[in-house]
Amino acid sequence: MALSATQRARYDRHLALAEIGAAGQERLQRARVLVAGAGGLGSPAALYLAAAGVGTLGIIDGDCIELSNLQRQVLFTSADIGRLKAPTARERLLALNPEITVVAHASTLTAQNVVSVLEGYDVVLDGTDRVNTRYLINDACVILGKPLVSAAIHRFEGQAMTYAPGRGPCYRCLFAQPQPGAVASCAEAGVLGVLPGVLGAIQATEAIKLVTGVGEPLIGRLLIYDALELRFTELPLARRADCAVCGEHPSITSVRDAGESCAAPDLTSVRRLSPSTLRQQLASARAAGQLVLIDVREPREFDIGHLEGACNIPLGEIPLRLGELTAGRTPVFICRSGRRSLSACALALRAGIEAPAHLEGGLLAWAAELDPSFEVAPG
Amino acid sequence: MSCTVRIPSPLRSYTGGAPAVAAGGVTVEEVLGDLERRFGGIRFRMLDEQNRIRPHIRLYVNTSEVTALAQAVQPGDTVHVICALSGG
Question: Mean of the pLDDT values across residues A344-364?
Answer without folding.
Answer: 86
